[in-house]
Specification:
This protein is of the alpha/beta class. It contains 10 helices and 11 strands. The strands form 2 sheets. Strands 4-5-6-7-8-9-10 form a 7-stranded parallel beta sheet. Strands 3-2-1-11 form a 4-stranded antiparallel beta sheet, sandwiched between helices.
């Protein structure tokens, strides 16, 4: 008997036209986060040019149809040719469980989640753990006002941050902050689409944008989005399995310029359940 999730994905697929040679698998992803395991479901889409992942992320980008169209875009056309063979990548520190010196030592860049001023202590621990040349960036997920973000940067002034990611919730606030600080700003949640990037450019709100395959509309739309931006980018994943991350790696390899480490280190994935989805 099919699960509710599988039936829901059948309903989604019924709303989209796709070629007859496409194949779909229902997937259930189980991620380890601290002592908890979080599950979410999605699809693997196989087409003429490979396989892509469709796994909307609640709280970040949960638009099922758009994620599905991104998967179809990715496997419908030949992937862009690679321009490099190596991709710099950053480690991610979300909590104290991630403060493992031997793991962090593998990377030349570490990103630390900072959602409260108390999280600044974790950033300082990372600086103490890592070698002097390690680049440290923070990701605020839009949690702060302009003044609060300035206070965070003041607390961390001795860390010599590489960049601050999504300090404020809106592009207007990030633009205002950018005029008051020297640390480069990278945008994620408010620079996912062409219209959001146009706003960020008009407001001069960022130095860098993050690009993720699913929210960008697939690998080919992601290339167009990068060209539309015209500046530095960071390619990152959307808490995906290796299938989705591999597509992100292909995007990163295809870019003309890649001046920042990418967020493409696989998350702690405990299990992937796969089942053919007959339509």
């Amino acid at each position: 008997m099919d699960s509710i999730q599988q039936l829901r994905w059948r309903d989604v697929l019924n709303d989209v036209l796709f070629p007859s040679d496409f194949k779909f698998e229902w997937i259930k992803l189980s991620f380890e986060q601290g002592f908890r395991t979080n599950d979410r479901d999605g699809l693997y889409v196989t087409g003429p040019h490979g396989i892509a992942e469709v796994s909307p992320l609640p709280g970040y980008f949960d638009r099922e149809i758009e994620c599905l169209l991104a998967g179809i875009d990715t496997v419908s056309h030949a992937w862009p040719d690679p321009k490099r063979s190596e991709i710099p990548m950053n480690a991610l520190v979300s909590n104290d469980y991630d403060l493992i010196p031997e793991n962090l030592a593998k990377y030349e860049c570490v990103k630390v989640k900072v959602h409260t001023i108390a999280d600044c202590e974790r950033v300082k621990k990372v600086k103490d753990i890592c070698s002097p040349g390690t680049k440290i960036r923070i990701d605020c997920n839009g949690r702060f006002s302009v003044q609060e973000a300035r206070e965070i940067l003041d607390v961390l002034k001795d860390v010599d941050l590489e960049l601050i990611e999504q300090p404020c919730r809106s592009n207007k606030k990030n633009a205002k902050l950018r005029r008051k600080i020297d640390v480069p700003i990278a945008l994620d949640e408010t620079a996912r689409t062409h219209s959001e990037i146009l706003e960020a450019k008009e407001l001069d709100a960022a130095d860098i944008i993050l690009v993720k395959i699913q929210s960008a509309g697939g690998i080919h739309n992601a290339i167009r989005l990068v060209d539309h931006w015209g500046g530095d980018v960071i390619v990152a994943h959307m808490m995906e399995s290796q299938v989705g991350i591999d597509v992100g790696m292909r995007l990163a390899c295809a870019l003309d310029n890649l001046n920042y480490a990418c967020g493409l280190v696989p998350p702690r994935l405990e299990n992937v359940v796969r089942k053919p989805l007959d339509l």
